[in-house]
């Protein structure tokens, strides 16, 4: 059987690095096994779901390097859900309930006061036809609960009923169905909650592995029971730890915290995001991984910690710099061309400047400095201007190579007596307009003697 996974966000906002963690866990799992990745949008909440968010999520996934085999939308599959509801009703496993939220809360408090678990007591199963008619005459409409198989013959005499599974991430897991309320699958207005469409889709689309955040662990027992009630074999489940900031703050799609789109617009490399999102909170060291294939080789879902994966957002920048400093020219050639960096000098230029870049786009600044000169003519003091003018008189003849800078600065030192920072910094500022940057020994041959002399104050 082909491994088939899915990423199933609600298109109600921009996905963030925490959502990307789930998407990447699934993508890498499929990649390692030659499987399929299905992109499913859980958009049954038609009031909040928007196509523009779905499109943006697809763009974000594509940028990260994730290529879905199939894209589907729950809003286009209501007929399949309706059929499943009919089957559950016919088998007596979906029953109508008429309690208001206030009544349910009161019952919950009563059970707690009696030191009983605050689970739904299945009172709706005791309603007679007359009771139901009276409630509906009041204008009440039912919501529908799935009857969990946590009893032998009497649904009011629940007993410990363990659902066990070997979690792909967390190892052996057990949930007691007697500790849970029968989940509501259909709201009063006929709309579906998450559970039923998700399970029906997983069956219909042949999902073999459900890998998601560990906030869903307790849901898994009821979902496994629902798979079986619908006559299906449950998929394997895996629950990874959630990603939080170093202060423990969770991430939210609605607030746009650390959104993938925002990181992309800020010039962050996709593999910097992927490296952090996948490796943080695992036994692997968090380091920049240059390709998705290399990340797949490092990926082991079972190596994931059970505690929350806390990270400092600044780590993304650290990984980004490390990736850029290692990038070969051919991997950025097209992007550099878009910045106007072309010609025979472009490969050597990239090799010289990449070690000083925060973003690939920053190379455009250094290209302009190389071609057009520094943009701050007033950075030198009068004393330093006089020193630089004298130094430029000592420029060696061409051809220039990697030894030219040492040859020049030695001549300047001998002539002026300056050394160290007092010698090097004014020359750097005169040549680049910056107090830091690429090694001048490497930059000088790219500048050439004519362009260097043009910077003489």
UniProtKB/TrEMBL annotation:
PROSITE patterns for the chain: AA_TRNA_LIGASE_I
A GO term, aspect molecular function: ATP binding
Source taxon at top rank: Bacteria
Cellular component terms per the entry's GO annotation: cytoplasm
Residues binding ATP, per UniProt: 253
One BP annotation, GO: glutamyl-tRNA aminoacylation
Entry keyword set: Aminoacyl-tRNA synthetase, ATP-binding, Cytoplasm, Ligase, Nucleotide-binding, Protein biosynthesis
EC number(s) reported in the record: 6.1.1.17
Motif mapping: 'HIGH' region: 9-19
Domain Glutamyl/glutaminyl-tRNA synthetase class Ib catalytic: 4-313
Assembly: Monomer.
Protein name, as recorded: Glutamate--tRNA ligase
Source organism of this protein record: Tianweitania sediminis
Lineage: Bacteria, Pseudomonadati, Pseudomonadota, Alphaproteobacteria, Hyphomicrobiales
